[in-house]
């Protein structure tokens, strides 16, 4: 049975890009192997320096994940910082990590370009991520396309460790990326991302969701004119939620003309609202039971700790500690 691992940073409310790029594949994987999912609070600390916000976001991610179908009877859900052993493994990997390897990583360059102070934590981010993956002897890492490079760095580090301290010391992971849904567009047509402020959050109130959808950027083609479905982010998003027949209908109406963008946005809103109805109900149920999330995270931490200790003990010994 393969071991599957992924993590998500608690840096804000989860959005549709996170859902299709990471959460839904992760939830599907829980049926196919031994799945471990964690809330990457150590990673979030590279950019979030507000303790109350970090705590609230961490809980929010757990809540949203459970609402969307993560089943704690099948998958292990835990907080990254409940397994501080990853910090020790980060150091053990660091001593073999070439500077050049980290200098090539996009995420660091992107973060600095966005105005984050270039800290050691941001620079070493991929090493912590490698430790996350390697400490659980993970086989498969479901992530969005933007994280592929980090899984490649992880493999490079594992190979280096194995060459230096013993073959088979660390298991080499494979990334799993869904190609057709690889990048979900946001309100402005760019990749949906918190940092672009173009996100559609999963669990907005009805009014707030409608307002967001109505705010999708469109061109000024008049109502009566034909429109191109191939370049529209309304259609791209609709494809994720609507039945194939409804998608064909929207594409036909785009080409025919006579329909304004507002009409298409209303259809998109209805499809999204309906899609998340069961998850919304489940979310309300969880919110009524305040001890539930804590209990899930506590039990997840216990199980993750046991697995992490096996690898860390093996690596410490191999390295002479
Ligand atoms: P953000 O860009 O909003 O900060 P994160 O970087 O925290 O999102 O991404 C968390 C997970 O969700 C990652 O696995 C990432 O690949 C995936 N993801 C984020 N945005 C998208 C998107 N627009 N399309 C596909 N996957 C995405
Ligand atoms: N870096 C990932 C992101 O930005 C989150 C993450 C941290 C992760 N550690 C991981 C993902 C290990 C997969 C495996 O979304």
Q: Report the portion of residues in β strands.
A: 5-15%
What proportion of the residues is helical, as a percent range? 55-70%
Report the span from N to C terminus. 31 Å
Largest sheet: 3 strands, parallel
Small molecules (ligands, ions, cofactors) in the structure = adenosine-5'-diphosphate, tryptophan
- What is the spatial order of strands in the main beta sheet? 1-2-3
CATH superfamily of the largest domain: HUPs
Q: List SSEs in N-to-C order.
A: EHEHHEHHHHEHEHHHHHH
Q: So what's the overall shape? A: globular
Task: Provide the fold topology.
Elements: E1 3-8, H1 16-29, E2 34-39, H2 41-44, H3 51-67, E3 75-79, H4 85-94, H5 99-103, H6 106-113, H7 120-135, E4 140-142, H8 148-165, E5 174-176, H9 206-214, H10 233-241, H11 244-256, H12 261-275, H13 277-287, H14 291-319
Parallel strand pairs: 1-2, 2-3, 4-5
The structure holds adenosine-5'-diphosphate (ADP) and tryptophan (TRP).
Adenosine-5'-diphosphate binds next to helix 1.
List keywords for this structure.
5 strands, 321 residues, two-stranded parallel sheet, Tyrosyl-Transfer RNA Synthetase, mainly alpha, single chain, binds tryptophan, Rossmann fold, 14 helices, binds adenosine-5'-diphosphate, 7% strand
Kindly summarize this structure in a few lines.
This protein has 321 residues and is mainly α. The chain is 55% helix and 7% strand. The chain has 2 domains: 3-183 and 290-319, HUPs (Rossmann fold), CATH 3.40.50.620; 204-275, Tyrosyl-Transfer RNA Synthetase, CATH 1.10.240.
């Amino acid at each position: 049975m393969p071991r599957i691992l992924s993590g998500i940073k608690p840096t804000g409310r989860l959005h549709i890009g996170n859902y299709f790029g990471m959460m839904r594949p992760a939830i599907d994987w829980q049926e196919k192997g031994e799945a471990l999912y964690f809330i990457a609070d150590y990673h979030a600390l590279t950019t979030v320096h507000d303790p109350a916000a970090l705590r609230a976001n961490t809980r929010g991610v757990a809540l949203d994940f459970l609402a969307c179908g993560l089943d704690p009877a099948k998958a292990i859900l835990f907080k990254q910082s409940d397994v501080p052993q990853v910090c020790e493994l980060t150091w053990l990997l660091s001593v073999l990590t070439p500077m050049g390897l980290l200098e090539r990583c996009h995420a660091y360059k992107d973060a600095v370009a966005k105005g984050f102070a270039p800290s050691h934590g941001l620079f070493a981010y991929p090493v912590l991520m490698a430790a996350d993956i390697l400490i659980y002897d993970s086989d498969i890492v479901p992530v969005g396309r933007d994280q592929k490079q980090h899984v490649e760095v992880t493999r490079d580090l594992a190979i280096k460790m194995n060459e230096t301290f013993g073959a088979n010391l660390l298991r080499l992971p494979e990334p799993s990326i869904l190609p057709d849904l690889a990048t979900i567009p946001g309100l402005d047509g760019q990749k949906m991302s918190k940092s672009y402020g173009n996100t559609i959050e999963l669990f907005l109130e009805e009014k707030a969701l409608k307002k967001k959808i109505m705010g999708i950027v469109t061109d000024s083609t008049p109502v009566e004119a034909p429109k191109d479905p191939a370049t529209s982010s309304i259609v791209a998003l609709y494809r994720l939620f609507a039945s194939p027949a409804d998608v064909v209908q929207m594409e036909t109406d785009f080409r025919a003309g006579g329909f304004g963008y507002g009409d298409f946005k209303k259809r998109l809103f209805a499809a999204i609202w309906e899609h998340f109805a069961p998850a919304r109900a489940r979310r309300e149920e969880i919110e009524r039971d305040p001890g539930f999330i804590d209990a899930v995270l506590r039990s997840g931490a216990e199980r993750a700790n046991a697995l992490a200790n096996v690898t860390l003990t093996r690596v410490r010994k191999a390295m002479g500690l």
